[in-house]
Amino acid sequence: MLRHRPDEFGLDIDAYGYVPFGQIVQAVQERYKEVTEEDILELLRAPDQRRFELNERGIRALYGHSFFVEMDGEPMDPPERLYVGTTAAEARRYATEGIGPGDRFYVHLSRDRQTAAARSREEGGPVVVEVLARAAAAAGIRFYERGAVVLTRSVPAEFVGQVYGLPPAAGESVQPSRPAVGQGGSAQASAPARAAYQPVRPATLPKGPITYGRKPRREIRR
């Protein structure tokens, strides 16, 4: 309802992803009559709940949207490094093309390697790419803390650090990796690795009527 298909439920969602809480209660009860407002509030009060935010503006999902939402609030002062779990093919592209949001509108980063590894989609084992977040912030890249993740629009290749868990590509005898800035070594990827890289195509804002979901649906109800 809040991350992918608000139009399907007739929700009045604002530019920052907020929906009046009463609309959520009504929409849920239309499908599950036994669910009460208190049930929903209990879910939101759970100590490990970091996906949603409820305040005087309404309720919203903090991350994971497949439609564009604006970032509000001040950018965070990030730690020296953040991490993203990915696939081997994507990791090879990141070293020269940077990290783009793919089929979303923001790059979703983790604060530690273990969490990022759990989000890797590589079948042979997790692949994790290091982001030199503090250096990127100093260069003007904005990071926003949203619950369990950190969001940014993109990460230029110069701020992509080490790659962990990357198997050798065809024709490579060693694992290509990028030393972190300040740790010595060249920041350029090996020639065999560069040959495997493909450009990351950044997401663009939709034109015309706003639709939600990864594929165009119907025009949002007002």
Neighbour order of strands in the largest sheet: 3-5-8
Please tell me the CATH architecture of the largest domain by its name. Answer: Alpha-Beta Barrel
Distance between the termini: 16 Å
CATH fold-level label of the largest domain: ADP-ribosylation fold
Order of helices and strands: HHEEEHEHEHEEEH
Can you tell me the CATH class of the largest domain?
A: Alpha Beta
Helix content: 10-25%
Number of domains: 2
Task: Determine the strand fraction and express it as a percent band.
Answer: 5-15%
Uncertain segments: 174-222
Number of DSSP-assigned strands? 8
What kind of sheet is the major sheet? 3 strands, antiparallel
Offer a few descriptive terms.
alpha+beta, 222 residues, Arc Repressor Mutant, subunit A, ADP-ribosylation fold, elongated, three-stranded antiparallel β-sheet
